[in-house]
Amino acid sequence: MCKGLATLPATCLKSAKDIKHKISFLLQKPEPQAVDQKQMKEKTTTAAAAAKRVPTAAEVEKWKESFSHVLNSETGRTVFSSFLRSEFSEENIDFWVACEDYKKNATSELATRAKQIYQQYVEADSPKEVNLDAATREETRRKVESVNPSCFAEAQKMIYVLMEKDSYRRFLKSKLIQDLSRTHAAATAQEKKEKKNYDCAKNRRALAGGA
Cβ neighbours of residue 200 under 8 Å, at least 6 residues apart? Predict the structure, then answer.
C-alpha cells in the first residue's frame, strides 16, 4: 500500500509543490556585507536544505503547540522566516538566530562578532534595527563593550517575546500554515481511503480462497 504525498491527487501534489517553491523563493535574499562569510555560507546551505522538503504533518502540529517548537526546528525556523519576510519583519528572527550563533563562538571571536551584531541589529538606525526600548538598547551597548557570551541576552529575550506575542499568532493563522494543514489533511484522508480499499480487497481474496 502506498502512503504519504505520493498518493495524493494532482491538485494536492501541486499545492504541496507550490508551498515548497514559495518557501524556497522567500529564502532567496541578499545577506548584509558585515556577516562573516563562513557563517553566511553555512546558514544558506542549512536553510536551502530545510526548504527542499514540505514539513511533515507532525511538525506542523508541533508548531501549533508552542512558539518554542517552531524555533527548535530547523524547518520551523525556515518557514517562520519566510512568513516574517512576507511581513517585512524578518530582522527579528535573524537577530534571534544571530544571538544563538553568537553564544557558540570561540572566546577569541566574541568581540568582533558582538560588534557586527550590534551594528547590524541593535544600534539606532542600523540596517536591520530590531524594536528594542531605549533602556535595553543602552544596556546592550554597555555589555557589548565588555564582551561576554550573554551580552545580548536581554535584547534577545525581548525580541523573542515580541515574536511570540505578535508574529507567531498571525503565523498560525497565515495562508502558508493553512495550506500545509489542508495538504496533510488530504494526505491523511487519501491514506485512510487506500487502507480501507486494501483491507476490503484482502478480505475478498480471503473469502474467495475459502470458498
Answer: none
The label of the residue with cell 542600523 reads 126
Residue 79's nearest CA partner among 68, 70, 91 is 70
* CB 68, CB 76: distance < 8 Å: no
Concatenate the DSSP letters of all residues of 156-173 into one string.
HHHHHHHIIIIIHHHHHH
DSSP at 174: S
pLDDT digits 0-9 by tens, 34-92? 445 555 555 555 555 544 568 888 899 999 999 999 999 999 999 999 999 999 999 99
CA 91 to chain centre: 13
φ, ψ for residue 153, nearest 5 deg: -55, -50
The grid coordinates of residue 67 equal 512558539
Task: Report whether 79 contacts 24 (CB < 8 A).
Answer: no
- How many CA atoms lie within 13 Å of 40's alpha carbon, on the beta-carbon side? 11
What distance in Å separates the CA atoms of residue 54 and residue 76, rounded to the nearest whole number?
11
Identity (one letter) of the amino acid at 84? L
Residue 161 identity (one-letter amino acid): V
DSSP H/E element including 208: helix 175-210
